[in-house]
Amino acid sequence: MNKPLLEWSEALALDQQTMDDTHREFVELLNRVAALPDNELLAGLDDFIKHTEEHFGQEERWMQEFAFPPAHCHQGEHANVLEVIREVRKRVADGQVQLGKTLTDALAEWFPQHAGSMDAILALYMKQIGYVPGADNSAAIAVAAAANAAQAAPGCSPGADACGHGAPAEAGQQS
Ligand SMILES: [Fe+2]
Ligand SMILES: [Fe+2]
Fold this sequence. Notes:
- By secondary structure, the protein is an all-alpha fold.
- The chain has 5 helices and no strands.
- The protein is 65% helix and 0% strand.
Protein backbone atom coordinates (compact mmCIF):
# COMPACT_ATOMS: atom_id res chain seq x y z
CA MET A 1 0.00 0.00 0.00
CA ASN A 2 1.38 3.35 -1.00
CA LYS A 3 1.42 6.10 1.56
CA PRO A 4 -1.04 8.88 0.70
CA LEU A 5 0.52 12.07 -0.59
CA LEU A 6 -1.00 14.14 2.20
CA GLU A 7 -2.28 12.55 5.36
CA TRP A 8 -5.26 14.04 7.16
CA SER A 9 -4.40 14.85 10.74
CA GLU A 10 -5.96 16.77 13.58
CA ALA A 11 -3.35 19.46 12.88
CA LEU A 12 -5.40 20.30 9.77
CA ALA A 13 -8.70 20.47 11.66
CA LEU A 14 -10.02 23.97 12.38
CA ASP A 15 -12.88 23.16 14.73
CA GLN A 16 -15.37 24.31 12.08
CA GLN A 17 -17.41 21.28 11.10
CA THR A 18 -18.47 22.26 7.57
CA MET A 19 -15.02 23.52 6.66
CA ASP A 20 -13.30 20.50 8.16
CA ASP A 21 -15.59 18.10 6.27
CA THR A 22 -14.82 19.88 2.99
CA HIS A 23 -11.10 19.91 3.76
CA ARG A 24 -11.12 16.21 4.51
CA GLU A 25 -12.73 15.61 1.11
CA PHE A 26 -10.13 17.89 -0.49
CA VAL A 27 -7.29 15.83 1.00
CA GLU A 28 -8.94 12.56 -0.07
CA LEU A 29 -9.46 13.79 -3.62
CA LEU A 30 -5.93 15.13 -3.84
CA ASN A 31 -4.56 11.75 -2.77
CA ARG A 32 -6.80 10.04 -5.29
CA VAL A 33 -5.61 12.26 -8.15
CA ALA A 34 -1.99 11.73 -7.10
CA ALA A 35 -2.40 7.96 -7.35
CA LEU A 36 -4.20 7.86 -10.71
CA PRO A 37 -2.69 6.20 -13.77
CA ASP A 38 -2.01 8.59 -16.67
CA ASN A 39 -5.08 7.56 -18.64
CA GLU A 40 -7.41 8.50 -15.77
CA LEU A 41 -5.68 11.71 -14.76
CA LEU A 42 -7.78 14.09 -16.83
CA ALA A 43 -11.09 12.81 -15.47
CA GLY A 44 -9.64 12.91 -11.94
CA LEU A 45 -8.53 16.50 -12.43
CA ASP A 46 -12.02 17.45 -13.61
CA ASP A 47 -13.55 16.02 -10.41
CA PHE A 48 -10.90 17.75 -8.36
CA ILE A 49 -11.51 21.12 -10.05
CA LYS A 50 -15.25 20.82 -9.49
CA HIS A 51 -14.77 20.07 -5.80
CA THR A 52 -12.22 22.85 -5.38
CA GLU A 53 -14.52 25.39 -7.03
CA GLU A 54 -17.25 24.44 -4.56
CA HIS A 55 -14.81 24.40 -1.62
CA PHE A 56 -13.47 27.88 -2.39
CA GLY A 57 -16.91 29.19 -3.38
CA GLN A 58 -18.34 28.11 -0.04
CA GLU A 59 -15.72 30.03 1.94
CA GLU A 60 -16.14 33.05 -0.32
CA ARG A 61 -19.92 33.10 0.18
CA TRP A 62 -19.44 33.08 3.95
CA MET A 63 -16.90 35.90 3.81
CA GLN A 64 -19.20 37.92 1.60
CA GLU A 65 -22.14 37.38 3.92
CA PHE A 66 -20.40 38.93 6.91
CA ALA A 67 -18.19 41.32 4.91
CA PHE A 68 -15.00 39.77 6.23
CA PRO A 69 -12.28 42.44 5.98
CA PRO A 70 -9.43 40.18 4.70
CA ALA A 71 -11.71 38.50 2.11
CA HIS A 72 -9.79 40.14 -0.71
CA CYS A 73 -6.54 38.33 0.18
CA HIS A 74 -8.23 35.01 0.75
CA GLN A 75 -10.20 35.14 -2.51
CA GLY A 76 -7.10 36.21 -4.40
CA GLU A 77 -5.22 33.17 -3.21
CA HIS A 78 -8.11 30.88 -4.14
CA ALA A 79 -8.22 32.41 -7.62
CA ASN A 80 -4.48 31.96 -8.14
CA VAL A 81 -4.60 28.33 -7.08
CA LEU A 82 -7.58 27.53 -9.31
CA GLU A 83 -5.87 29.22 -12.24
CA VAL A 84 -2.80 27.00 -11.78
CA ILE A 85 -4.93 23.84 -11.53
CA ARG A 86 -6.93 24.75 -14.65
CA GLU A 87 -3.72 25.50 -16.57
CA VAL A 88 -2.25 22.13 -15.60
CA ARG A 89 -5.49 20.42 -16.62
CA LYS A 90 -5.19 22.06 -20.02
CA ARG A 91 -1.60 20.91 -20.43
CA VAL A 92 -2.40 17.39 -19.27
CA ALA A 93 -5.10 17.32 -21.96
CA ASP A 94 -2.35 18.29 -24.41
CA GLY A 95 -0.30 15.28 -23.33
CA GLN A 96 1.91 16.71 -20.59
CA VAL A 97 0.74 14.14 -18.04
CA GLN A 98 3.91 14.48 -15.96
CA LEU A 99 2.61 17.88 -14.82
CA GLY A 100 -0.03 16.06 -12.80
CA LYS A 101 2.57 15.00 -10.28
CA THR A 102 4.14 18.47 -10.14
CA LEU A 103 0.69 19.86 -9.38
CA THR A 104 -0.32 17.37 -6.70
CA ASP A 105 3.08 17.76 -4.95
CA ALA A 106 2.70 21.54 -4.97
CA LEU A 107 -0.87 21.35 -3.65
CA ALA A 108 0.15 18.96 -0.87
CA GLU A 109 2.60 21.62 0.25
CA TRP A 110 0.26 24.55 -0.26
CA PHE A 111 -2.85 23.18 1.45
CA PRO A 112 -1.57 22.85 5.05
CA GLN A 113 -0.24 26.40 4.82
CA HIS A 114 -3.51 27.79 3.51
CA ALA A 115 -5.61 25.84 6.00
CA GLY A 116 -3.32 26.90 8.85
CA SER A 117 -3.42 30.59 7.97
CA MET A 118 -6.26 32.01 5.87
CA ASP A 119 -8.82 29.28 6.57
CA ALA A 120 -7.85 29.18 10.26
CA ILE A 121 -8.39 32.93 10.62
CA LEU A 122 -11.72 32.64 8.84
CA ALA A 123 -12.84 29.74 11.06
CA LEU A 124 -11.83 31.64 14.19
CA TYR A 125 -13.71 34.74 13.10
CA MET A 126 -16.83 32.70 12.34
CA LYS A 127 -16.66 31.31 15.84
CA GLN A 128 -16.17 34.77 17.36
CA ILE A 129 -19.21 36.28 15.65
CA GLY A 130 -21.29 33.09 16.06
CA TYR A 131 -21.68 32.34 12.35
CA VAL A 132 -22.89 28.81 11.67
CA PRO A 133 -23.14 27.66 8.02
CA GLY A 134 -26.73 26.91 7.09
CA ALA A 135 -28.24 28.54 10.20
CA ASP A 136 -30.02 31.87 10.61
CA ASN A 137 -27.01 34.14 10.88
CA SER A 138 -28.64 37.56 11.13
CA ALA A 139 -27.26 38.11 14.64
CA ALA A 140 -23.72 37.07 13.61
CA ILE A 141 -23.86 39.33 10.56
CA ALA A 142 -24.95 42.25 12.75
CA VAL A 143 -22.06 41.58 15.16
CA ALA A 144 -19.61 41.57 12.24
CA ALA A 145 -21.06 44.77 10.80
CA ALA A 146 -20.73 46.53 14.16
CA ALA A 147 -17.13 45.34 14.52
CA ASN A 148 -16.30 46.51 10.99
CA ALA A 149 -17.83 49.91 11.67
CA ALA A 150 -15.94 50.27 14.95
CA GLN A 151 -12.48 49.77 13.56
CA ALA A 152 -10.49 50.37 10.44
CA ALA A 153 -10.58 47.13 8.48
CA PRO A 154 -7.46 45.09 9.22
CA GLY A 155 -7.60 43.48 5.80
CA CYS A 156 -5.07 44.10 3.06
CA SER A 157 -5.93 46.78 0.58
CA PRO A 158 -6.37 45.93 -3.08
CA GLY A 159 -3.20 46.68 -4.96
CA ALA A 160 -0.97 46.50 -1.92
CA ASP A 161 1.29 43.50 -2.10
CA ALA A 162 0.50 42.46 1.44
CA CYS A 163 -1.53 39.38 0.70
CA GLY A 164 1.34 36.99 0.21
CA HIS A 165 -0.70 35.04 -2.31
CA GLY A 166 0.71 31.57 -2.03
CA ALA A 167 -0.27 29.81 -5.20
CA PRO A 168 1.56 26.52 -5.61
CA ALA A 169 4.90 27.41 -7.04
CA GLU A 170 4.28 27.74 -10.74
CA ALA A 171 3.32 24.14 -11.23
CA GLY A 172 1.91 24.95 -14.64
CA GLN A 173 4.80 27.04 -15.81
CA GLN A 174 7.41 24.59 -16.86
CA SER A 175 9.10 25.61 -20.05
FE1 LIG B 1 -10.49 25.86 2.58
FE1 LIG C 1 -9.60 29.07 1.78
